[in-house]
Amino acid sequence: MNKKNRKTTGEVKTKEFRYLWVVLIVFICTYSLSWYGVQKYQMFYESREYPMWMHVKGLINNISDQKQQMIIIGDSRAKAGYEPVLSSKNTLNLAVGGSTPIDGYYTLFTFLKNNPDPESIVLSYSPLHLTHAMYFWSRTVKYDFLAENEFDEIFNNLKKYQDPAMGKENQLWKYKYLTSMYISSVFEGIKKKRWLINEEVKNSLVKTKGHAYFGTREGTQSLNGEVKEASDFHHSELINYYFIKLIELARSRSIKVLWYTMPFNDASCNKVSPGLVSGFNEYIERLETKTGINVIRKIHCMDNKYFGDGSHVFRGSEITTREILAEIE
């Protein structure tokens, strides 16, 4: 090969090498920008659940010297069913939609680190949210609700206690490093202009001390998830473990622990499996005997007119709030 050909070949390889470096740099820059965007601007594109979780995260992590008479910890039914502003005392709604006692335990743990001990705590979860942690990955992890060491602790406990929704694989890395886990939410957020709704929700939560409605129809005969998805009740081992830890943590601080099951609408009561009702109620009764919690209500029914959708009270929130307050005031 003559010198001219060698030179030409060398120039081609150099150009290819430079081209690959340019492609690599462009990829790294694009990925870094997209990763930063999806991680730092979730209020822009996530559903209205996101500001609710972030509001609670802020409340439990902010240091305060204000003593609460009562806090309620639970899922979306508790979020809709308890209005702190109706109480004459200091109370907070720390419930978040789709959560389980796994989130509840760390919510209380962090709250107690940064706030005076409340006099009472009310726990309220729907039957489905005691059977499996269906939103653990898509909310608890995706919204980065817990500290890193708390996630590690959960995954260690998952080796001993099973949950049918969480599996055995630690998928935390996907939500830390893969922007693809967020892209569908980004498209939906832009399409629906979620940033406008989320800002309203954020401001409302401050005024209501954590209360938020979900369905807002003037009554409904829609069916809840227990009717649609379950024929009986079997608690998750992992959720049960954290449920007991949550109660024990409160009792170790001499905090009174109460349980309140948010009502089913009549339409759901007429369709729900008797096996689910009896199984869930028996589970709560066993917990009452074992831990000494005060059970205000097990599964009960309320007229359809008080519900904004098949699962959440709307006009009935004052009734459920008053029932809870009657036990603590």
Commentary on this structure:
- The strands form two sheets. A five-stranded parallel β-sheet has the order 2-1-3-4-6, sandwiched between helices.
- It has 15 helices and seven strands.
- Helix 3 (49-61) packs parallel to helix 5 and helix 3 crosses helix 10.
- With 329 residues, the chain is of the alpha/beta class.
- It is elongated.
- The protein starts with a helix and ends with a helix.
- Strand 1, helix 4 and strand 2 (91-93) form a beta-alpha-beta unit.
- It has helices at residues 3-40, 42-45, 49-61, 76-81, 101-114, 136-141, 148-158, 172-177, 183-192, 194-208, 225-229, 237-252, 266-269, 274-291, 317-328; strands spanning 70-74, 91-93, 120-124, 256-260, 264-265, 294-297, 301-302.
- The protein has two domains: 1-40; 45-328, Rossmann fold, CATH 3.40.50.
- Mean of pLDDT: 93
CATH class of the largest domain: Alpha Beta
| Unreliable residue stretches | none
- Which structural class do the helices and strands define? alpha/beta
Shape: elongated
Largest sheet: 5 strands, parallel
